[in-house]
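#structure-requests
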Amino acid sequence: MSEGKERRGGARHRIPVVIDALSVSGFPLVPDDVSAGGFCLVTAREPGVGETFICSIQTGEELFGSCLAEVVWVRAKGGTPPLWSMGISVKSLGSDRARLATLLQELTACLGLAMLPY
């Protein structure tokens, strides 16, 4: 499952970002890590690899809405009820991808956090 992490382009950050994806979860999600190309989420619903959904990404004061995302890997986390980790690739940010990457770097620097070493 780590293959998904190795293929993700862009620096990964552990900063406060909120993902709203109603088809994945009925409430906003905070990813384990995020980059301009994707993120890792934990959910109570088992997703399927290749599943696509629309989500919004909020970082700082900016909202990137109506992003097409795709599940690229899934890993069972266990527990009761069971939880699932999933790697998400953001497919439709277009020119906003560079803006999101810049915002993630700025927030990481502002919060004094290190980028993840993947």
